[in-house]
Structure formats: C-alpha cells, structure tokens
Design goal:
single chain, alpha+beta, about 210 residues, elongated, 3-stranded antiparallel beta sheet
Length: about 210
C-alpha cells in the first residue's frame, strides 16, 4: 500500500485485506477512476492501481453492504492516521526551523544534530506520538556525559520552541561538535535512541 498526504490505496492491498478477487478489484478500480474523469494509467503501479481516497470510497460502493462498510471504515481509519502523521511532520518542521534561528553564532543546538542522525538512519520524526522530543532525551544524556567527561562545561541557553510553549534549552560551543556527534552515533542512538523510537511509534512500517 502507498500512503501519501493524499492517501493512495492499492488494489492489491484491498484485495488481501478484505479477501477480494484481485482481478475484479483492478477492473472496478479502472472503471471508477475513468468515471471520475481520471486517467487510470496515471494511477497504475506495476500490475496494481493506487486509488485516491475519494475514488476508493466510490469503489467500495460496488460491493455488498458488509464488505462496503468494512472498506469505508478502514479507509477513514487510514485517513485519520495519515492526517496525524502529516500534522506531526509539520509541527516538527516548524520547530526545527524556528529553533535553528534562535541558536547563537558559534554554538550548536541538540535538536539540529539529532535530526541529522535520524536522517542518516532514514527515520522521520513523524514516527513519534505527541512525546516526540528525542532532542530532549539526547540533550539530557549528553549533559550527564559531559559532566562525567569534562566536569564543568561551557554552554549558553536560548529560547527553544517546543511546539506548545517556549523554554530555555542549552546550546553548546561548536568546539564540542565532534564530541557530541560521536556521542550521538556511538552512545545515545544505539543505547537510547532506538528505545525511544520503539516506545513512541504511531505507525508500523511493514
């Protein structure tokens, strides 16, 4: 199945999910797309169709009442989940952009660097629920790590937007950047980051 902000649902997925004949479903999808004034070829992916949400709801009308109700209910559930993911992505993007501009010159923010590490592992902050603040987790552990390594350490604070309110967060001198990146990759991500993901997933990426 393909999930995008517009919610495309594959015929192969629907056939498997609701035990429907895949050939019948493909034919119905092709007819529904054409009846909606769309070019079915634009939605063909291999040997299956990726059907937009509205057309998928129309497609469901071609089945018996019990099957129709199940398909419609499932599509609405998928739409709700996709909308939730889109909201999380937008909220995180806003936080990242806003906070980047608040960090003093010569310093770096934990959030920006954590984002880079997750990007390297092809992970999205949209995979987290409302407690989506891995930067807070990384910052707390790094502060403890620095105290053990350095004793007293230099830092400044800046107004950090959390998505709901502004709070003071630490920014570290750029000279600490190699140490922080090493800490993220070798300590925080494998020891704490993966556990953070597991406890805050909102979607399964099967």
């Amino acid at each position: 199945m393909s999930l995008t902000n517009d919610l495309l649902i594959s015929t192969a997925y629907l056939a498997k999910k609701f035990d429907l004949d895949v050939e019948t479903l493909r034919f119905a999808a092709r007819s529904t797309l054409a009846d909606s004034g769309l070019n079915p070829l634009d939605f063909l992916d291999g040997d299956e169709y990726l059907v937009p949400k509205d057309e998928a709801l129309m497609l469901a009308m071609q089945f018996d009442d019990a099957t129709r109700r199940k398909i419609v209910k499932h599509i609405k559930e998928l739409e709700s989940r996709v909308n939730k993911v889109t909201t999380l992505e937008n909220t995180y993007a806003e936080r990242l952009e806003h906070n980047y501009m608040q960090v003093p010159v010569g310093y770096f923010s934990v959030m920006t660097e954590v984002h880079k590490v997750f990007h390297e592992h092809k992970l999205s902050f949209a995979d987290f629920n409302v407690n989506r603040h891995p930067d807070k987790s990384a910052g707390r552990h790094f502060s403890t790590y620095l105290k053990n390594q350095e004793g007293d350490f230099d830092h400044v604070t800046y107004p950090h937007y959390t998505g709901r309110f502004s709070a003071q967060a630490k920014a570290y001198p750029e000279e600490y950047l190699p140490l922080f990146r090493k800490f993220l990759r070798e300590i925080w991500f494998p020891k704490y980051g993966m556990e953070y993901i597991k406890t805050r997933e909102v979607l399964s990426h099967d």
